[in-house]
Amino acid sequence: MTRIDIKDVLARTVNTVYGDLVTRRTGEAVRSGIEAMLHDDGETAIIDFGTVRLMDISCADEIVGKLLLQQGTARYFLLAGVHAAHEDALAPVLERHHLAVVAEDRTGALKLLGSLPEHARRAFRLLADSGPAELDEIATRLALAPDEARCALETLRQHRVVLETGGHYQALRCA
Prior knowledge:
This protein is an alpha/beta fold.
């Protein structure tokens, strides 16, 4: 896993000590800095927003939206240190681009951000709260038909917010 602290990238690319992400140009510079730090396809990149005080929608679009659109099929992304103000900027970006991402707040709780169907959200919440599970267990615990559970899990897998290994599904997380 590659962990990237946004404030460090901001200091290197925009030459500022402040932790605010405003203006599209700032977002472009930070995204370019992040892209330069990414190595192997398939790796999980943790983008740490914990030191960011403010982020506007244009920066959310440049950093998260475009990063997921350009590299989201080659790797997994997890946003760490996300708080409500960040979510307010991220929500319209994720909705507009039909994207989803896992966010971990400062307490370590996982949250699924973006536009996904309710059955996929329920499946993600189960995996985030209870840990890895197989399709049949997920279907039973959520009272879904196996085909509905499979569809929910496939949606989550396509959005790269869950991992599937040998028939076991698990929520993407930092550790």
